[in-house]
Amino acid sequence: MSSEKSFSHLKSWFRKNTKGNVFIALSGGVDSAVVALAAKKALGEKAIAITANYKTLALLELEDAKRVAYEIGIRHVIIEYNELEDENFVKNDVNRCYYCRKSLGENIKTYTKKYQITDVVDGTHLDDIKDYRPGLKAIREYQIKSPLLEERIGKKEIREIARKYNISIANKPSNSCLASRIPYGNNITQEKLKKIELAEEKVKELFGVSRVRVRDHGEIARIEIGRDEMEKMFNKLKLDQLDIVLKKMGFRYTSLDLYGYRSGGLIVIND
Protein backbone atom coordinates (compact mmCIF):
# COMPACT_ATOMS: atom_id res chain seq x y z
CA MET A 1 0.00 0.00 0.00
CA SER A 2 1.33 3.47 -0.88
CA SER A 3 2.15 5.93 1.89
CA GLU A 4 -0.56 8.27 0.55
CA LYS A 5 -3.19 5.54 0.84
CA SER A 6 -1.88 4.52 4.27
CA PHE A 7 -2.22 8.08 5.53
CA SER A 8 -5.74 8.29 4.14
CA HIS A 9 -6.61 5.09 6.02
CA LEU A 10 -5.05 6.50 9.18
CA LYS A 11 -7.20 9.63 9.02
CA SER A 12 -10.27 7.51 8.35
CA TRP A 13 -9.45 5.39 11.39
CA PHE A 14 -9.83 8.44 13.63
CA ARG A 15 -13.14 9.44 12.07
CA LYS A 16 -14.55 5.92 12.43
CA ASN A 17 -13.13 4.82 15.79
CA THR A 18 -13.16 7.88 18.05
CA LYS A 19 -16.13 9.66 19.60
CA GLY A 20 -14.85 12.83 21.25
CA ASN A 21 -11.57 14.42 22.30
CA VAL A 22 -8.54 12.19 21.73
CA PHE A 23 -5.16 12.09 23.46
CA ILE A 24 -2.22 11.18 21.22
CA ALA A 25 0.77 10.01 23.27
CA LEU A 26 3.49 12.08 21.57
CA SER A 27 6.91 10.73 22.48
CA GLY A 28 9.26 12.83 20.35
CA GLY A 29 9.64 10.10 17.73
CA VAL A 30 8.43 9.96 14.14
CA ASP A 31 5.79 7.25 14.72
CA SER A 32 3.68 9.19 17.21
CA ALA A 33 4.30 12.37 15.21
CA VAL A 34 2.56 10.86 12.17
CA VAL A 35 -0.31 9.65 14.35
CA ALA A 36 -0.68 13.15 15.80
CA LEU A 37 -0.65 14.66 12.31
CA ALA A 38 -3.39 12.30 11.11
CA ALA A 39 -5.47 12.97 14.22
CA LYS A 40 -5.16 16.73 13.79
CA LYS A 41 -6.21 16.55 10.13
CA ALA A 42 -9.11 14.19 10.87
CA LEU A 43 -10.42 15.67 14.13
CA GLY A 44 -9.20 19.26 14.27
CA GLU A 45 -9.32 20.70 17.80
CA LYS A 46 -10.56 17.39 19.22
CA ALA A 47 -7.03 16.03 18.80
CA ILE A 48 -4.71 16.78 21.74
CA ALA A 49 -1.09 15.63 21.98
CA ILE A 50 0.14 14.57 25.41
CA THR A 51 3.78 14.07 26.34
CA ALA A 52 5.01 12.61 29.62
CA ASN A 53 8.21 13.99 31.11
CA TYR A 54 8.84 11.05 33.41
CA LYS A 55 12.47 11.80 34.33
CA THR A 56 13.95 8.97 32.25
CA LEU A 57 13.17 10.81 29.01
CA ALA A 58 16.17 12.51 27.40
CA LEU A 59 15.80 16.28 27.21
CA LEU A 60 16.28 16.21 23.44
CA GLU A 61 13.27 13.88 23.10
CA LEU A 62 11.10 16.31 25.04
CA GLU A 63 12.27 19.20 22.86
CA ASP A 64 11.50 17.18 19.71
CA ALA A 65 7.97 16.50 20.97
CA LYS A 66 7.41 20.22 21.58
CA ARG A 67 8.72 21.16 18.15
CA VAL A 68 6.65 18.54 16.32
CA ALA A 69 3.47 19.61 18.13
CA TYR A 70 4.17 23.19 17.03
CA GLU A 71 4.79 22.12 13.42
CA ILE A 72 1.56 20.15 13.30
CA GLY A 73 -0.38 22.89 15.04
CA ILE A 74 -1.85 20.51 17.58
CA ARG A 75 -2.67 21.41 21.17
CA HIS A 76 0.06 20.00 23.40
CA VAL A 77 -0.18 18.96 27.04
CA ILE A 78 2.98 18.04 29.00
CA ILE A 79 2.59 16.07 32.21
CA GLU A 80 5.30 15.29 34.74
CA TYR A 81 5.92 12.41 37.10
CA ASN A 82 8.94 10.45 38.30
CA GLU A 83 9.31 6.84 37.21
CA LEU A 84 12.11 6.43 39.73
CA GLU A 85 9.53 6.51 42.50
CA ASP A 86 8.27 3.12 41.27
CA GLU A 87 10.38 0.39 42.88
CA ASN A 88 9.22 -2.14 40.27
CA PHE A 89 10.69 0.05 37.53
CA VAL A 90 13.88 0.84 39.46
CA LYS A 91 14.75 -2.81 40.08
CA ASN A 92 15.08 -3.16 36.29
CA ASP A 93 13.96 -6.70 35.61
CA VAL A 94 12.76 -8.08 32.27
CA ASN A 95 9.37 -6.43 32.82
CA ARG A 96 10.80 -2.92 33.14
CA CYS A 97 9.01 -1.72 30.00
CA TYR A 98 5.73 -3.08 31.33
CA TYR A 99 6.03 -1.00 34.51
CA CYS A 100 7.07 2.03 32.47
CA ARG A 101 4.01 1.83 30.20
CA LYS A 102 1.78 1.05 33.18
CA SER A 103 2.88 4.29 34.85
CA LEU A 104 2.25 6.14 31.61
CA GLY A 105 -1.25 4.71 31.35
CA GLU A 106 -2.04 5.55 34.96
CA ASN A 107 -0.81 9.13 34.65
CA ILE A 108 -2.52 9.83 31.34
CA LYS A 109 -5.75 8.46 32.77
CA THR A 110 -5.71 11.09 35.53
CA TYR A 111 -5.94 13.81 32.86
CA THR A 112 -8.69 12.31 30.69
CA LYS A 113 -11.54 13.82 32.70
CA LYS A 114 -9.99 17.30 32.73
CA TYR A 115 -9.72 17.36 28.93
CA GLN A 116 -12.92 15.36 28.30
CA ILE A 117 -10.99 12.59 26.58
CA THR A 118 -12.84 9.56 25.22
CA ASP A 119 -9.90 7.79 23.55
CA VAL A 120 -6.12 7.54 23.96
CA VAL A 121 -3.84 6.41 21.12
CA ASP A 122 -0.12 5.79 20.67
CA GLY A 123 2.45 5.27 17.91
CA THR A 124 2.87 1.49 18.09
CA HIS A 125 3.17 0.21 14.51
CA LEU A 126 3.36 -3.03 12.54
CA ASP A 127 7.13 -3.51 12.88
CA ASP A 128 7.03 -3.08 16.67
CA ILE A 129 5.36 -6.41 17.26
CA LYS A 130 8.39 -8.20 15.81
CA ASP A 131 10.46 -7.21 18.86
CA TYR A 132 10.31 -8.09 22.55
CA ARG A 133 7.99 -5.39 23.93
CA PRO A 134 6.41 -6.20 27.31
CA GLY A 135 5.13 -2.61 27.42
CA LEU A 136 2.46 -3.49 24.87
CA LYS A 137 0.64 -5.52 27.53
CA ALA A 138 0.30 -2.45 29.76
CA ILE A 139 -0.89 -0.32 26.85
CA ARG A 140 -3.71 -2.76 26.20
CA GLU A 141 -4.61 -2.93 29.90
CA TYR A 142 -5.24 0.83 29.82
CA GLN A 143 -7.18 0.52 26.56
CA ILE A 144 -4.72 2.66 24.66
CA LYS A 145 -5.30 2.11 20.96
CA SER A 146 -2.69 1.82 18.20
CA PRO A 147 -4.10 3.02 14.86
CA LEU A 148 -0.86 2.41 12.95
CA LEU A 149 -0.90 -1.22 14.05
CA GLU A 150 -4.60 -1.65 13.35
CA GLU A 151 -4.10 -0.28 9.83
CA ARG A 152 -0.97 -2.44 9.41
CA ILE A 153 1.31 0.51 8.71
CA GLY A 154 5.07 -0.02 9.19
CA LYS A 155 8.15 2.14 9.64
CA LYS A 156 8.93 2.63 5.94
CA GLU A 157 5.50 4.11 5.20
CA ILE A 158 5.59 6.18 8.40
CA ARG A 159 8.82 7.87 7.33
CA GLU A 160 7.47 8.48 3.82
CA ILE A 161 4.40 10.19 5.28
CA ALA A 162 6.54 12.29 7.61
CA ARG A 163 8.75 13.44 4.72
CA LYS A 164 5.78 14.30 2.54
CA TYR A 165 4.35 16.54 5.25
CA ASN A 166 7.73 18.05 6.13
CA ILE A 167 7.87 16.82 9.71
CA SER A 168 11.32 17.85 10.91
CA ILE A 169 12.11 14.50 12.57
CA ALA A 170 11.15 12.42 9.52
CA ASN A 171 14.62 10.86 9.33
CA LYS A 172 15.28 10.72 13.06
CA PRO A 173 16.62 7.31 14.13
CA SER A 174 14.42 5.25 16.41
CA ASN A 175 15.15 5.81 20.08
CA SER A 176 14.23 4.31 23.42
CA CYS A 177 14.23 5.51 27.00
CA LEU A 178 17.59 6.00 28.71
CA ALA A 179 16.85 3.14 31.11
CA SER A 180 17.22 0.70 28.21
CA ARG A 181 21.00 1.34 28.34
CA ILE A 182 21.29 -0.31 31.77
CA PRO A 183 21.50 -4.14 31.87
CA TYR A 184 18.58 -5.98 33.44
CA GLY A 185 19.21 -6.65 37.12
CA ASN A 186 21.12 -3.41 37.72
CA ASN A 187 19.13 -0.76 39.54
CA ILE A 188 18.17 2.39 37.64
CA THR A 189 19.23 5.68 39.25
CA GLN A 190 19.00 9.31 38.20
CA GLU A 191 22.79 9.52 38.32
CA LYS A 192 23.20 6.67 35.82
CA LEU A 193 20.56 8.09 33.48
CA LYS A 194 22.14 11.55 33.44
CA LYS A 195 25.57 10.07 32.82
CA ILE A 196 24.26 8.06 29.87
CA GLU A 197 22.43 11.06 28.42
CA LEU A 198 25.51 13.30 28.61
CA ALA A 199 27.76 10.56 27.20
CA GLU A 200 25.52 10.03 24.17
CA GLU A 201 25.33 13.76 23.53
CA LYS A 202 29.12 13.96 23.63
CA VAL A 203 29.55 11.10 21.14
CA LYS A 204 27.15 12.80 18.73
CA GLU A 205 28.87 16.15 19.18
CA LEU A 206 32.41 14.83 18.61
CA PHE A 207 31.80 12.38 15.78
CA GLY A 208 28.67 13.69 14.03
CA VAL A 209 26.86 10.35 14.25
CA SER A 210 23.08 10.10 14.46
CA ARG A 211 22.38 6.72 16.12
CA VAL A 212 24.21 6.16 19.41
CA ARG A 213 23.73 3.98 22.46
CA VAL A 214 26.06 4.18 25.45
CA ARG A 215 25.44 0.97 27.38
CA ASP A 216 26.31 1.29 31.07
CA HIS A 217 28.19 -1.79 32.31
CA GLY A 218 29.35 -0.29 35.59
CA GLU A 219 32.97 0.75 35.02
CA ILE A 220 32.62 0.14 31.28
CA ALA A 221 30.86 2.34 28.74
CA ARG A 222 30.03 0.21 25.68
CA ILE A 223 29.29 2.43 22.69
CA GLU A 224 27.08 1.19 19.86
CA ILE A 225 27.01 3.11 16.57
CA GLY A 226 25.06 2.36 13.41
CA ARG A 227 27.32 0.29 11.14
CA ASP A 228 26.84 2.77 8.31
CA GLU A 229 28.48 5.45 10.48
CA MET A 230 31.20 3.36 12.11
CA GLU A 231 34.04 4.90 10.09
CA LYS A 232 33.29 8.30 11.63
CA MET A 233 34.55 6.92 14.94
CA PHE A 234 38.07 6.20 13.64
CA ASN A 235 39.63 9.49 14.67
CA LYS A 236 42.35 9.08 17.29
CA LEU A 237 42.26 12.67 18.53
CA LYS A 238 38.49 12.61 19.03
CA LEU A 239 38.66 9.16 20.63
CA ASP A 240 41.20 10.51 23.13
CA GLN A 241 38.90 13.44 23.88
CA LEU A 242 35.95 11.11 24.40
CA ASP A 243 37.97 8.84 26.69
CA ILE A 244 38.89 11.79 28.89
CA VAL A 245 35.29 13.02 29.08
CA LEU A 246 33.84 9.60 29.90
CA LYS A 247 36.47 8.99 32.58
CA LYS A 248 35.47 12.28 34.21
CA MET A 249 31.87 11.03 34.18
CA GLY A 250 32.90 7.95 36.16
CA PHE A 251 33.54 5.31 33.51
CA ARG A 252 36.90 3.59 33.92
CA TYR A 253 36.95 1.97 30.48
CA THR A 254 35.38 2.83 27.13
CA SER A 255 34.74 0.29 24.39
CA LEU A 256 33.35 0.54 20.86
CA ASP A 257 31.10 -2.42 20.02
CA LEU A 258 32.36 -3.58 16.63
CA TYR A 259 29.06 -5.25 15.84
CA GLY A 260 27.43 -1.83 15.89
CA TYR A 261 24.00 -0.75 17.04
CA ARG A 262 21.22 -3.33 17.36
CA SER A 263 17.83 -3.05 18.96
CA GLY A 264 17.61 -4.94 22.24
CA GLY A 265 21.37 -4.84 22.70
CA LEU A 266 20.96 -5.32 26.44
CA ILE A 267 18.46 -8.18 26.61
CA VAL A 268 20.67 -9.99 29.08
CA ILE A 269 20.18 -10.55 32.80
CA ASN A 270 23.02 -10.07 35.28
CA ASP A 271 23.24 -12.65 38.07
As a percent range, the share of helical residues equals 40-55%
CATH topology of the largest domain: Rossmann fold
Distance between the termini: 46 Å
Mean pLDDT over the full residue set: 93
Textual characterization of the structure:
This protein is α/β, with parallel strands linked by helices and 271 residues long. The protein has 2 domains: 3-164, Rossmann fold (3-Layer(aba) Sandwich), CATH 3.40.50.620; 178-256, GMP Synthetase, Chain A, domain 3 (2-Layer Sandwich), CATH 3.30.300. It is built from 10 helices and 7 strands. It has helices at 3-17, 30-43, 59-72, 87-90, 96-112, 135-141, 147-150, 155-164, 190-207, 236-249; strands at 21-25, 47-53, 75-80, 117-121, 212-217, 220-225, 253-256. The strands form 2 sheets. The protein has a 4-stranded parallel β-sheet with strand order 3-2-1-4, sandwiched between helices. Strands 5-6-7 form a 3-stranded mixed β-sheet, with helices on one face. β5 (212-217) and β6 form a beta hairpin. α1 (3-17) packs across α2 (30-43), α1 (3-17) crosses α8 and α5 (96-112) runs parallel beside α6. The longest helix is centred in the C-terminal third of the chain and has 18 residues, at 190-207. The chain is globular. The N and C termini lie far apart (46 Å). The model is unreliable at 267-271 (pLDDT under 50).
Task: Write a brief caption for the model.
The protein is α/β, with parallel strands linked by helices and 271 residues long. The chain has ten helices and seven strands.
